[in-house]
Write a structure and sequence with these properties.
- By secondary structure, this protein is α+β, with helices and mostly antiparallel strands.
- It has helices spanning 12-21, 55-72, 95-109; strands spanning 23-26, 30-36, 43-47, 80-86.
- Helix 2 (55-72) links the parallel strand 3 and strand 4.
- Consists of a catalytic RNA component (M1 or rnpB) and a protein subunit.
- It is an enzyme of class 3 (hydrolase).
- This is Ribonuclease P protein component.
């Protein structure tokens, strides 16, 4: 699956739509909101606040969550927008812990893993 701009949520109205109308999973490391789109491929939006840590820590969390997303969803689930909001505990979590929690989120949201 390509990882360019077409796979990312960038506009504030897109985030708001997913937050307001989508289904949500709230976990220890992050929350995941999911809402259908008409594009036929999944897109990801990330929200990592300063509560998670400094700039280096936040960017590390973003990179890990992006990799978790592509490893879990890939091309398996078409037409969904996801917004992952990291919690401070995500900064201390290993990649495997993030991956396991995202798998739980997908199952809870009724999304098949790809």
């Amino acid at each position: 699956m390509p990882r360019g701009r077409s796979t990312r949520l960038t506009d504030s109205p897109e985030f708001e739509r997913v937050y307001r109308q989508g289904r949500v999973y709230r976990g220890r490391l992050f929350s995941v909101h999911a809402f259908p789109n008409d594009l036929g491929h999944p897109r990801l939006g990330l929200s990592v606040s300063r509560k998670v840590g400094g700039a280096v820590t936040r960017n590390t969390v973003r990179r890990r969550l992006r990799e978790v997303f592509f490893a879990s969803v890939g091309e398996g689930e078409g037409g969904l927008d996801f917004v992952i909001s990291a919690r401070p505990a995500a900064a201390e979590a290993s990649f495997q812990e993030l991956l396991a929690e995202f798998g739980r989120a997908l199952r809870r949201l009724g999304v098949r893993e790809g």
